[in-house]
């Protein structure tokens, strides 16, 4: 078993409230879930209106598949013009690592 996860740290554009932030972040999370059949959620900077961290994870039997899905998700995460992707943290673990 292989487990991979990424954290995408975003700077949001012209956002002045948490309500506006949700209207930007929710479609990104929904797109990642739908396109790649992965788990995704906002996981950081929850009370800051111009920053967001979105976490994604994938589980598969093959390490190569996990890496491919995370690569595609990262490209998609960077492709949203309304936000700036500041950094990406990634980790891939084997079931033997636990």
Topology overview:
Blueprint: E1 2-12, H1 18-36, E2 39-44, E3 51-60, H2 63-78, E4 83-94
Antiparallel strand pairs: 1-3, 1-4, 2-3
In summary, what is this structure?
With 98 residues, the chain is α+β, with helices and mostly antiparallel strands.
Structural notes for this entry:
The chain is of the alpha+beta class. It has a single domain (2-92), classed as 2-Layer Sandwich (Alpha-Beta Plaits), CATH 3.30.70.1120. The protein contains two helices and four strands. The chain has a four-stranded antiparallel beta sheet, with helices on one face. The radius of gyration is 14 Å and the shape is elongated. The mean pLDDT is 95.
Strand percent estimate: 35-45%
CATH class: Alpha Beta
H/I helix tally: 2
Radius of gyration using CA atoms only: 14 Å
Instruction: List segments where confidence is low: pLDDT < 50 over at least 5 consecutive residues.
Output: none
Main features:
2 helices; four-stranded antiparallel β-sheet; 98 residues; elongated; 4 strands; alpha+beta; Alpha-Beta Plaits
